[in-house]
Every structure is written in structure tokens, then in C-alpha cells.
From TrEMBL:
GO terms for cellular component: cytoplasm. This is Translation elongation factor 1-alpha. The keyword Disulfide bond does not apply. InterPro entries: EFTu-like_2 (IPR004161), P-loop_NTPase (IPR027417), T_Tr_GTP-bd_dom (IPR000795), TRAFAC_GTPase_members (IPR050100), Transl_B-barrel_sf (IPR009000), Transl_elong_EFTu/EF1A_C (IPR004160).
Length: 275
């Protein structure tokens, strides 16, 4: 959660289905995180704005509070208040007391907090559990729109010896497969997909939610970059537009916005200075 790495955090968060907010239970640490300029508050706000609608809260370093139930309840109350302001419904959020250092309540139920009856969340059905792993297993898979035109924002572009140019990113909508002719916007580059891989294994096709790498013909690493969006050239490829509707959030507002103000716009994996 370091200020210098917020850009990377935005890129990663824009590709996630669920966020785990790690909160330090230590005296002063929790309070600093949720203060007006605190990182905990900013991270929750970024996650919600970037479309991550499911949240798990892990309250860490509980061993430093001697597994105090009072401290755990105090943190739940305060955290519920601020995530509600951000847009999350606290009733849908599991709160899990953990010690990452000692492994308590991460995978197995810890004997150190006999008062802890477990977490519960109310989504379509009521789900309960004890550990962080169980909370992760209880994430509702979001809808995966395979029938829409392909949209794949690039996270990075690699040059791999003996293979060539390999863009990497998460399929948001549609399907990508070898043989498909893709167009990168706004670069205006069109090329054929030679192969699609995920975790070093060849895929017949990449579908929404898959983080894939795909090899493209006759395109140099210099022609495409992080933030470009790949689409199927034959099915409504992404194009430039005069204007579009957006949900916008302003962080570090200068007080007033006037001529010459040049903020950085973060949109999916792209980070662009604009006027």
C-alpha cells in the first residue's frame, strides 16, 4: 500500500473480481489507515470505483492485540462505516480476524480466539465460515459476457526470444483465439493472433476473467503498449470516440479545476496525462 505504487495497484485492481482489504489491528496502525488521507480508505475507494464489487476484510496482526475481541469489534464497526460510505454493503462483507505472521485463521481455524464464532455474508444466499480461505471460496463468480465483442485491455507487452511480441492482459468481454485478426486501439495496429496462453499452457480460447498472453504476427513491442485495448477486427473493434459517459472519481483534488490543470486519467490499465 505505498503511495509510489498506487499506479500498479490501479492496474491490478481493474482486473480483479474481489478485493481483500488487509487492515492492521495494532494500536495507531488501524487509525492511521482509515484517517482522512489514509491508505486503507483510498484502497477501498479505488477498488469500488474500478468495479470490484466484492470485498473481504482481513483484520491482521490480531496477535499484537492479544486476540482482543473488543478491538476486533471496534475495527469492524469503524470499517463498516467507511466502506458503506465508499459504496459497499457491510452485510455482504466477511470480516476475518487473522495473524498472517503466525497463520491464524488463514487456512485453519485458530484456537487463539475462542470468542470468534465465524464470519457471515448475505448475498443471494447466506454464507458462513471461519477462515480467510473459506471467505475466498465463497466469492460469487461474476457473469462472464462471452457473447459481447472482444475487449482486452493490455497490462504489459513482452518481447520473448524465439517467439516474438506477446501482449498480456485480462479478457473483459468476448473471446480471443488463435487465427483471430485483432485490432489494438488507439494504436491502430491490426494483426493475427498466432497462439493464446494462460499460465504457460496453450488455450483453445481465452474467455472473460482469463489473464492471457497471446503471440501476434509482425508487430514490434514499440507499436503497442499497456493501456491499449485489443478487439476482434471483424466484430465491432474498439475505436476512438468524440465523447463517452464515465463514472469518474477525483483523487488529490487541487481545490479548484481551471485551465491548464493536467490530471492523470486512469482507465482500466491505461494511465494518461490529460488536459
Amino acid at each position: 500500500g505505498h503511495r509510489d505504487f498506487i499506479k500498479n495497484m490501479i492496474t491490478g485492481t481493474s482486473q480483479a473480481d474481489c478485493a481483500i482489504l488487509i487492515i492492521a489491528a495494532g494500536t495507531g496502525e488501524f487509525e492511521a489507515g482509515i484517517s482522512k488521507d489514509g491508505q486503507t480508505r483510498e484502497h477501498a475507494l479505488l477498488a469500488y470505483t474500478l468495479g470490484v464489487k466484492q470485498l473481504i476484510v482481513a483484520i491482521n496482526k490480531m496477535d499484537t492485540t492479544k486476540w482482543s475481541e473488543a478491538r476486533f469489534q471496534e475495527i469492524i464497526k469503524e470499517t463498516s462505516n467507511f466502506i458503506k460510505k465508499v459504496g459497499y454493503n457491510p452485510k455482504t462483507v466477511p470480516f476475518v480476524p487473522i495473524s498472517g505472521f503466525n497463520g491464524d485463521n488463514m487456512i485453519d481455524n485458530s484456537p487463539n480466539c475462542p470468542w470468534y464464532k465465524g464470519w457471515e455474508k448475505e448475498t443471494k444466499t447466506k454464507t458462513t465460515g471461519k477462515t480467510l480461505l473459506e471467505a475466498i471460496d465463497a466469492i460469487d463468480p461474476p457473469s462472464r459476457p462471452t457473447d459481447k465483442p472482444l475487449r482486452l485491455p493490455l497490462q504489459d507487452v513482452y518481447k520473448i526470444g524465439g517467439i516474438g511480441t506477446v501482449p498480456v492482459g485480462r479478457v473483459e468481454t468476448g473471446i480471443i483465439k488463435s487465427g483471430m485478426v485483432v485490432t489494438f486501439a488507439p494504436a491502430g495496429v491490426t494483426t493475427e493472433v498466432k497462439s493464446v496462453e494462460m499460465h504457460h499452457e496453450q488455450l483453445v480460447e481465452g474467455v472473460p476473467g482469463d489473464n492471457v498472453g497471446f503471440n501476434v504476427k509482425n508487430v514490434s513491442v514499440k507499436e503497442i503498449r499497456r493501456g491499449n485495448v485489443a478487439g476482434d477486427s471483424k466484430n465491432d473493434p474498439p475505436k476512438g470516440a468524440e465523447s463517452f459517459n464515465a463514472q469518474v472519481i477525483v483523487l488529490n483534488h487541487p481545490g479548484q479545476v481551471g485551465a491548464g490543470y493536467a490530471p492523470v486519467l486512469d482507465c482500466h490499465t491505461a494511465h494518461i496525462a490529460c488536459k
